[in-house]
Task: inverse folding
């Protein structure tokens, strides 16, 4: 079967990684539980920034956020290797911008993810993901972002939301930890 995965905040803990970097860069000590209960994707409000300031902060920190030591979510690397071992196809579909695609692919490989030639898609907008997902004929797709998941409701496939504080209202099947992946598959 074919499995598709978003990358940021689906397979890797990018926002929390950025949260810790912001605390360090701004010499602040915003509590982790505030981050963990934030009901929106941008994190700038935790630091008292306006949307514009938040955008600037994100853009100027992006290299560091993307390419330093952002941890994969627990069991994500192992779960994807297990799929490959079982003969399944693993696809990555990330809306990171075009200039980050090559480095992101390399970064994923270095982080231990199984990335096969031709199975890494990058540089599309959130709303374009659906076209790639449809063309690939995926059997399963996982994403964290409500705006992306909303575009997928008409597809005849298994769509899951990767649990996060800002997507609890999304009423589709949910995966909280990647060690649950095995139990979702048919015997
Ligand atoms: Mg994401």
Result:
């Amino acid at each position: 079967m074919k499995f598709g995965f978003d990358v940021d905040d689906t397979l890797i803990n990018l926002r929390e990684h950025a949260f810790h970097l912001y605390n360090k860069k701004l010499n602040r000590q915003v509590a982790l539980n505030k981050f963990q209960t934030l009901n929106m994707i941008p994190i700038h409000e935790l630091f008292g920034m306006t949307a514009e300031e938040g955008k600037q902060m994100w853009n100027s920190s992006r290299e560091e956020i993307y390419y330093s030591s952002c941890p994969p979510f627990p069991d994500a690397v192992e779960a994807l290797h297990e799929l490959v071992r079982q003969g399944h196809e693993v696809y990555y579909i990330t809306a990171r911008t075009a200039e980050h695609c090559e480095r992101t692919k390399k970064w994923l490989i270095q982080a231990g993810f199984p990335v096969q030639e031709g199975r890494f898609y990058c540089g599309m907008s959130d709303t374009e993901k659906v076209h790639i997902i449809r063309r690939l004929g995926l059997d399963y797709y996982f994403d964290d972002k409500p705006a992306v998941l909303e575009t997928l409701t008409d597809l005849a496939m298994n769509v899951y939301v990767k649990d996060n504080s800002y997507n609890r209202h999304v009423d589709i099947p949910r995966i909280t930890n990647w060690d649950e992946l095995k139990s979702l598959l048919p015997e």
User: Anything to note?
Assistant: The chain has two domains: 2-12+71-184, 14-67. The pocket of magnesium ion is lined by residues 6, 8-10, 143-145 (CB under 6 Å).
